[in-house]
Amino acid sequence: MKPAAFDYYRPETLDEVLSLLDEFGYDAKILAGGQSLIPMMNMRLARPPVLIDINGVPGMTGIEVGDSEIVIGGLTRHYMVEHSAEIRDSCPMLAEGIKLIGHSQIRSRGTIGGSIVHADPTAELPVMLTALGGKVTVVSSEDERELTPEELFLTYMTTTIEPNEIVKSVHFPVIAERTGHAIEEFTLRSGDFAIIIAAASVTLDEEGLIESATLCIGGVDGVPVKLDDVTDELIGQAPSDELFAESCAPIVDMVEPEKDIHASVEYRKDLCVALSRRVLKKAADEAKLV
Amino acid sequence: MTEKTAESSRLKTITLKVNQKEYTVDVEPRMLLSDVLRDELRLTGTHVGCEHGVCGACTIMMDGRPVRSCLVFGVQADQADIVTVEGLESQDGELHPLQNGFWEKHGLQCGFCTPGMLMTACHLLEHNPDPSREEIREAISGNLCRCTGYQGIVDAVEYAAKEMRERAE
């Protein structure tokens, strides 16, 4: 048995979960999919004294696509989003990005809420939530509040969610008209953690000029980084390879990645520029088609 | 011993179905499903390699989906329906087409990764009876073969897919 001993609770309602969180606070960890938590416990990097397994709690799984918003229950597993035809139509980036998460065995168990609160800045969901301007609803026994990605992500693996709170649902906007999405990442092996990940959304006006755009990069800081200075420059212009090449070149001076055994700072900066150019172009091309 | 450790070492009774057979066992909450299968149920076909979700050797089917059994606690498998590599061959001992494929196409060398490869490939062929070599590679990308026998493994899955399509006709 690799993990250290812990007390195991398997509540059957959300209210029970919340009262256990009130009781144990910082001692408790929520066990949803466990695909990030259990590896940490197996290596004894994490030794939570109490685990609250929410897999038996009803009403926390599901995908609801409305006119302007997609609501995904916190306990919804990645494969459910991956295979949802509605998600493919209403939020193409989410459908594409989910496929990049780990491997099918991981996507069988891993959850949307869990992946977001794990807050790995190179993970797909935090980057997509930031790029698309999504929101997270968290609840405690006393309160319910909505957090934007900027309010949620604090730094590496750290969020502003209080120890007595849990993610109830995650919200993404439905893709707007004349809009395209794209997400790409560079990994050493298929399914591995990304070295750099980039996501973009581009909306064109009726003349085919860029009306609005967002670009977000993961892997350069403790949180996903939105590059509004780059995308603001694009507004009113016609999308072209030259435009994206020119506007993405200054990114080398905007990002501050760290080096590690896998890649140097310069290489990571190059990746940021290349992937940004690619996702902006792809998103613009998609936008032309719809 | 503090009260807390006394509580956490308390055994939980779980009932699970593995390869169509029902088992009831007492497990500590921190016992991984892979260890429950191997040590409690003596189903040692499921291999444990890295034990932190990278190598894929411990892949099993849990409620119809491929899952890494080293990343699930045994207590979470209470009431689950599980298939391990031991459940692949038929009741009368006939090998599964995938097992035949691995035999025919030299899909295994040391054999350590084989159970996980078989369970992953099994899920692929259930959902995609005629996968391209690229799709096979993508499907098994979460399973590491340290003999680097991927060529033979892809051949074996292709062979099994053909065999299963012919049987279905």
Automatic annotation (TrEMBL), chain A:
Gene3D superfamilies registered for this protein in UniProt: 3.30.465.10, CO dehydrogenase flavoprotein, C-terminal domain (3.30.390.50), Uridine Diphospho-n-acetylenolpyruvylglucosamine Reductase, domain 2 (3.30.43.10)
SUPFAM superfamilies: CO dehydrogenase flavoprotein C-terminal domain-like (SSF55447), FAD-binding/transporter-associated domain-like (SSF56176)
InterPro entries in the record: CO_DH_flav_C, CO_DH_flav_C_dom_sf, Diverse_Substr_Oxidored, FAD-bd_PCMH, FAD-bd_PCMH-like_sf, FAD-bd_PCMH_sub1, FAD-bd_PCMH_sub2, Mopterin_DH_FAD-bd
Coiled-coil regions listed: none
UniProt-listed PROSITE patterns: FAD_PCMH
Source species, domain of life: Bacteria
GO molecular function: FAD binding; oxidoreductase activity
Domain FAD-binding PCMH-type: 1-177
Pfam family, one: FAD_binding_5
Annotated keywords: FAD, Flavoprotein, Oxidoreductase
Annotated protein name in UniProt: Molybdopterin dehydrogenase
Lineage: Bacteria, Bacillati, Bacillota, Bacilli, Bacillales
UniProtKB/TrEMBL annotation, chain B:
SUPFAM superfamilies referenced in this protein's UniProt entry, alphabetically: 2Fe-2S ferredoxin-like, CO dehydrogenase ISP C-domain like
GO molecular function, one term: metal ion binding
Gene3D superfamilies: 3.10.20.30, [2Fe-2S]-binding domain
Pathway entry: Alkaloid degradation; nicotine degradation
Pfam family, one: Fer2_2
Residue intervals of the 2Fe-2S ferredoxin-type domain: 12-88
Superkingdom classification of source: Bacteria
Keywords carried by this UniProt record: 2Fe-2S, Iron, Iron-sulfur, Metal-binding, Oxidoreductase
Name by which UniProt lists this protein: 2Fe-2S ferredoxin-type domain-containing protein
